[in-house]
Amino acid sequence: MSRTSRRSPEGRTSWRKAAVVALPAVVAVAAMAVAMAEGVLASSFAVSGKAFQVSSGRLSSKGLASFVGVGRSVGGEGHPGALLGIGDARLSDFCQSAKVDTPVGTVVFKLTAGGRAGEVAVHNLVLHGQDLVGDAHFGDVEIGRDASTLDRVPGIRGAVGQFGLQAADVTVSGVKSHAWSATGGDLRLKGLSLDVSLDGRTCF
What we know:
Layout: H1 15-38, E1 52-72, E2 78-91, E3 93-102, E4 105-114, E5 120-139, E6 142-146, E7 163-188, E8 193-198
Antiparallel strand pairs: 1-2, 1-3, 1-7, 2-5, 3-4, 4-8, 5-7, 6-7
């Protein structure tokens, strides 16, 4: 009688190994979720220096403001990008993924929400992004406004004389972005799912 193999399928990891790798990430996500809910998460902190993916089938928001900012890692390295402030938004679905190098291989940390569970609600989210692609419609847009006078999203303002952009409302379909960080006052994720796996699939 042959013994049943205890090896995990190729491309996956056992829960025992995954727990060791995932625990710090799970704790970090839980802490971030609490901070977002309480509105105490700072809009500026040392970034990891590794960009992550964010995607959604459709995003609509009342209020949008943007200007160029630089995030810095603990070592002082600068990461320029667009600081994109979103006021009150609804997303049809939400996906965030990042590749993390570990002693057991490259692990994909992936968080998804929305879809059949219902829309994801976001309030005063600040995304520090490298890029953003999709099909967009802006309402009452102002391009080239002094970043210090932006007023569509509370607290989202740049330096005097800095280039800024804002709109009363925006709708974007097929959202795909690489970002350095994301912070917010309130993020409500319906149907939240967290997956950590070896050689897993990213958002896009």
